[in-house]
Amino acid sequence: MELFRTILELQQALTADRSAGLTIGFVPTMGALHPGHLSLVNRAGVENDRVVVSIFVNPTQFNDPSDLRNYPRTLDADMALLSTCRCEYVFAPSVDEIYPVPDIRKFDFGSLESVMEGHFRPGHFNGVAQVVSKLFDLVKPDKAYFGLKDFQQYSIIKNMCSMLKLPVGIVACDIVREADGLAMSSRNTLLTPEHRAIVPQIYSTLQNALKEAGQFRPEEVRKHVIDRINSLGLLQVEYFEIVDELTLKAISSWEQKGTKVGCIAVFAGKVRLIDNIVFAK
Question: Which residue among 41, 73, 76, 114 is least packed, with the fewest CB closer than 10 Å?
Fold first, then answer.
């Protein structure tokens, strides 16, 4: 496994690999890696000849400066974890390496970016599109791997690839959870012991919502989820929406065609966690 800090080093290695006819799998991350990330890396290793993992805390996707400041940066630990997988290249550039000049591009994702995460984190998805499109241009992967915990992000990136006509296969990977159901996240390390003990209630509440789907209308299920989590005292729901998989618009009836996904964001103290669950296919 090789660590590259510059675009030039990375591209020299990848150019040689492509010349040899090798396929490239790419896992973009912001570091603070956990087994959820490793599941993406392992899948990339099964499906490609070379695996590239990027570790870059992207400033343009944070609308809260304190969130950017506090985001965990653990490169040594990340490298140790990646050494347990088949990963040929780690790309860990500086901010100046990725943004030698400010990226002023504006993406228009329509309603996909105006709901849920987009509503509460204005500008977030524009920053995601900026950095992912840059990384795709640098790595030129055959396939890129994204976890479905960030369901809206996955939808945005698929839309971005179509918009920019990028020849990258976007591979969705299932959410990886702790034994108690908490979706694995780099932010979990920031939880206090008191909050860590109660946050599994997020997923158990979502699971209960699946059972309620046959008995109550979507808006009633939505209210039950929000009320249940808020009643715990230590957690505060920012949003919970049951949306159409493709449009991300809230559904009004279970009879609507297509897959429905329940997406949630919850504050556990100052730590913001997201999760989702599929209601029907």
Answer: 76
